[in-house]
Structure formats: structure tokens, C-alpha cells
Amino acid sequence: MKHFKTLSAYFEYMLLPQPEHPMLSVLSAIGDGFLPCPKESSPPITHDCYSISLKKIVKGNLNYGRTKYDFTNGALIFMAPRQVLQWDNSVVFEQKGFSINFHEDFIKGTELAKQIKKYGFFSYTVNEALHLSPKEERLVESIVENIKTEYHNNQDEFSKDIIISQLSTLLKYANRFYERQFLNRKELSNDLLTKFNEELEVYFETGQLQEIGIPSIEQLANKIGISQRYLSDTLKQETGKTTTEHLQLYLINEAKNILLKPNKTVSEVAYELGFEYPQYFSRLFKKKEGISPSEYREKYRMN
After folding, report:
1. Is the pTM of this model over 0.85?
2. How far is CA 172 from the centre of its chain?
3. Do 75 and 137 fall within a single domain?
4. Per the count of CB atoms within 10 A, which of 28, 109, 287, 289 is most buried?
5. Among 139, 155, 183, where does a domain finish?
6. Which residues pair with 63 in a beta bridge?
7. Residue 285's domain is classified under what CATH number?
8. Lowest-pLDDT choice from 50-59, 79-88, 196-205, 222-231
9. Total domains present in the chain
10. Same domain for 158 and 20?
11. Are residues 194 and 101 in the same domain?
């Protein structure tokens, strides 16, 4: 897999105009015209840059994170360094919007370098991009125009600080819009929780728990067809619980059923549920239920 350490090398490979700054590029077609067209196809590649793009007109299959992306008009897409990107010649790169690319070293030593790692949307697979309303789109485009103006100005000692400040503002708004997208997609959130529990049920019923052990959140998210981070954020927003907490609740509910079988010891219940150490199972059970597995068994046997 090809990896590009500099922005210039990445743009040369993409057949795009060389950036005016060695670590920053701003391509914009917000008004008339279209963005420059990159090369027609590419095998999987990675690079050391962040990318923020608004794609408004494009057709074909683009794979980002090995996931096919549905280019809906007004989709805001975020890429972090070393994420995998590929596309084939079915893609029609005739698009409006903008594309900001900056090397990770461009923000090194700034507050943005710390904050950018906290934005979950840089971890999402691309089919979970942010879909903007027209009003949100206009706001984002106005910030990009400010960045573009500063990018094309003669560079001075203030230029970098101003650009980074605008990038920070752009990402803060994007974060707000993501929260809005989660709130407006409650039906999807409920559907995700249902699918999450269904995948757990299948995992239990097919004996994978005994063969492989407790599934990871990443495994379950892959089965559903979304990223681990997006699943976690969506369930947390809607239910107030993380994916790990939902997994633990499912295991505790299963444990309750098994504990009431008289021929099973607490250790056997723990092993059956995929816990390597029965002590950990007992601590988790008591934390969630307020009583130990043994106390639960005695309490409900008598009822």
C-alpha cells in the first residue's frame, strides 16, 4: 500500500495542483466552476494529512476505510492521517464544494492538535458522514471562504494562527451539527440498539461465546456494518449508556437466567459467559446489581 509522508507528494500522486503552502491546501468551488479532478482510480493509499471536504456532486463508488460511500449532496467528510482511501474509474469527480487538506505537523504544538483527536467524526467510516442542512452548509462555506482568503494572502507571522483559529471554529460547528444529526435520527438510534442486541443473541445462540469468548465492540459494529465509534456515539446519545455498558447489561441478564439453575456454580456461570476470571464476573455483577451472584441466587431461589 502506498503511503505519502508529505502533502505535496500526495497531491502529485492525485494529479492535483500543488499546494501554495507545504503543509496546507485549500481547494474551493463554492460558487461557479468545479473542483480540480484527481486521477481516475487508485488502489488503497494512506497519507499523513487531515482532510475536511464538502462533496456536493459526484457519482460512482469511493471506498474510505474500505467502506463504500454514498455521496449525498451536502455531505461533509472527515479523514484523519493514515486512514485508507481508494476509488475506481466508475467515480465521476465533477463536484462543487471544497477540500481542505493539512499535514498533521501543521497543527503540532497548538491547542487544535489536542482537540482534533477528541472529534469522533474523524474516526467514522465515510458512509456515516455529516449531512448538512442548507443553512449549515452556508455557515460552513463562509468559514472556508475566510480560510481560503488567508491561504491566498501573502504569508506573514499571523497567517498560521488565523488559519488554525478558523479551522478550530469549523470543527466546533461540525461537532454541533453532528449532535443535531444524532438527535434527529432517534429512529436510527433505536434500530441500532435492536441490531446490536440481535447480533449478541446470534453470537450466543451459535456457540461463538464458548468458542471465542466475549465479543469486542468492534466485532459487533462490523456485523452491523458501521464503525465502532459511530455505534458508541449514537447509543450514548440516545440511551445514555455506552456500547460496553449495553454489552455488560446483556451478559448480566444472561447470567441471571443461568444462576437460577441449581447445577451451576458461580465460576461455571462466569466461564459459560466467556469471562476468563470468575472474580471479574462477580465484581461486575455486584457493581451492576448491588448484590453478588451468590446472593442473587439465594434471594431469588426463595421467591
Report:
1. no
2. 16
3. yes
4. 28
5. 183
6. 68, 86
7. 1.10.10.60
8. 50-59
9. 2
10. yes
11. no
pLDDT value at 216 more than 50: yes
Are residue 68 and residue 160 in the same domain, yes or no?
Answer: yes
Domain of 127, in residue numbers: 2-183
Grid cell, residue 10, equals 500526495
Element (H, E) at 189: helix 186-205
Q: Which of 47, 65, 24 is nearest to 167 (CA)?
A: 24
The residue with cell 466467556 is 274
* Residues contacting residue 75 through CB under 8 Å, at least 6 positions apart: 54, 55, 129, 130, 131, 132
Residue from 163, 13, 157, 28 nearest 99 by CA: 28
Say what the pLDDT of residue 65 is. Answer: 45
> Looking at the DSSP assignment, which residues form a beta bridge with residue 4?
47
34 shares its domain with 136 = yes
Confidence at 72, pLDDT banded by 50, 70, 90? very low
H/E run at residue 77:
strand 75-79
Per-residue cell: 189: 438510534
Report the C-alpha gap between 300 and 99 in whole angstroms. 61
β-pair partners for 24 = 21, 102
Cell of 162: 488565523
Query: If you search the block for the grid coordinates 455505534, which residue do you land on?
Result: 231
71 residue type, one letter: F
CA-to-CA dists, residue 245 to 200, 236, 265, angstroms = 13, 10, 25
**16 and 144, same structural domain?**
yes
Instruction: Select the highest-mean-pLDDT range: 62-66, 237-241, 252-256.
Output: 252-256
* DSSP assignment of 206-234: TTHHHHH-SPPHHHHHHHHTS-HHHHHHH
